[in-house]
Structure formats: C-alpha cells, structure tokens
Amino acid sequence: MTAKPVLNRAQFHTSVARLRDLPASRAEIAFAGRSNAGKSSAINLLTRKNRLAYTSKTPGRTQLINFFELDANIFLVDLPGYGYAKVPPEIKAQWEALLSRYLQERAALAGMVLIMDARHPLTPLDQRMLDWFLPRGKPVHILLSKADKLSGNERAQTLRKVRQAVAAHACVSVQLFSSLSRLGAEEAAARIESLLEPLGPSQNDDTAPAMATQHE
Ligand SMILES: Nc1nc2c(ncn2[C@@H]2O[C@H](COP(=O)(O)OP(=O)(O)OP(=O)(O)O)[C@@H](O)[C@H]2O)c(=O)[nH]1
Ligand SMILES: [Mg+2]
Question: Any idea which architecture 7-199 has in CATH?
C-alpha cells in the first residue's frame, strides 16, 4: 500500500511553458509569489532536496511551470514569479494570462502556497493571485518568507497584520518562514501534506478520511 504523499519523495517531473502542455494530474499544490520571494528555496527546503528547484539571485529565474512529483500524479508546482520590473510588457502579459488561467481553471489544483517576502507582504500582485484563486474556495497557505531578515518584534507584527488582512477568508492560513534559518519548515511541510491528504493515494487505507475520493 502506498503511504500518503510526503514532500521528501519529490522528484523533478516536467517543465511546461503553456497550459495545454500541463501533465495529467490527480492533485497538485502550487507555489506562487513575486519573483525572488523565495518559492524555489522553499520547495528545496520542504522537500529536503537542495537542488531540486533552481534558485537564483536574479529575479525571474523560474520562467516555466515546474512539476515535482510526490507520488503517482501528485505534484508540487513551482510557478513563474511575477512582478519583476525589468520584464518586457509582452512577457508580463503572457505570464499574467498563464497564471490567472492556471489558478482559476486547473481542476487538479488542490491548494496554493503563496510566498511573500515578510518585509513587504500583500503587494497588489499578491492580492491578485488571491482574487483569482479564492473564489474556488480551496485552501491557501501563506508563507511570510525571509523572516530571518526581521527582528522578533517585526516578525510578530507582520504575522498579526497579514492574519488580520485575510481574516475574512476561512480557507487562508498564514505563518512565518525562512529557508535560511528553517523557521517554520515543519509547520509548512505538515500543512502542505495535510492539503494533499484527503485525496492521497491511500483509498484502501482504513485511516483515510471518508471524503478520500471526493475531489475534482
Ligand atoms: N535571507 C534569506 N534569503 C532567502 C530566503 N529564501 C530565499 N532567499 C534568497 O532569495 C533569492 C531568491 O530565492 P528563490 O528561491 O530563487 O526565489 P523565487 O521566488 O523562486 O524566484 P523566481 O524563480 O525568480 O520567481 C535567492 O538569492 C535566495 O538565496 C530566506 O528565507 N532568507
Ligand atoms: Mg524560482
């Protein structure tokens, strides 16, 4: 019997540039966020694979949609970052169309991890990601990344502020995170695994929740 999907089983699966090339998927969790927010670093820390997703000091490094397989047809998805000022307008428009359609229409998308630099969270573009995805009523887990760059006091203030801002949405959770210091890594991994659990590969497992097969 297969165990529930666990993050450290992640293996690179495919990279796609167009929605029509998306792989068949039973369920996936997408990592979205501004360029340079730390999406790829978070994926590497959470999967405990240092070089699974490519990280870079140059914003806009992840330009394709990268799929990492956790179990048969269950994926983590590293989305292209948005908001990088130096990208030409036509490329920006392409990314925007791709991200909005993916977030609004991808049936297998079970939840979104939204990564925001804790020093400037909830930018207008982050808000747009939420506006596109929240109507679907699926869970969003916000990681306030690079928390190592804030003092303890600033961390607490930022967490409180962002929690207040999303308080109206029961399906949104928020935590502090740092790929550098590993702050919040266990909490994030547990949350992401729990998003995949109800539809895990363990339909035959007695311990699986009753709703096991009820997903898109
Ligand atoms: N101090 C600190 N730096 C971080 C952290 N996470 C990522 N970084 C750095 O931030 C830069 C960008 O990280 P990436 O993980 O490549 O960011 P990304 O969101 O995948 O960026 P794009 O692929 O361009 O969208 C790199 O130089 C990382 O080393 C963190 O938690 N703390
Ligand atoms: Mg990246």
Answer: 3-Layer(aba) Sandwich (3.40)
Strand partners, 115: 33, 143
User: pLDDT tens, 53-66?
Assistant: 887 776 666 678 99
- How remote is the CA of residue 4 from the centroid of ligand 1, in Å? 29
Q: Which atom of ligand 1 is found nearest the CA of 147?
A: 31
Cα 68 to Cα 16, 26, 196: the distances in Å are 12, 13, 14
Give the residues surrounding ligand 1 with Cβ less than 6 Å away: 33, 35-41, 55-57, 59-62, 81, 145-146, 148-149, 178-180
Q: What global pTM score does this model have?
A: 0.89
Instruction: Give the closest ligand to the alpha carbon of residue 143.
Output: 1
Q: What is the pLDDT of residue 200?
A: 54
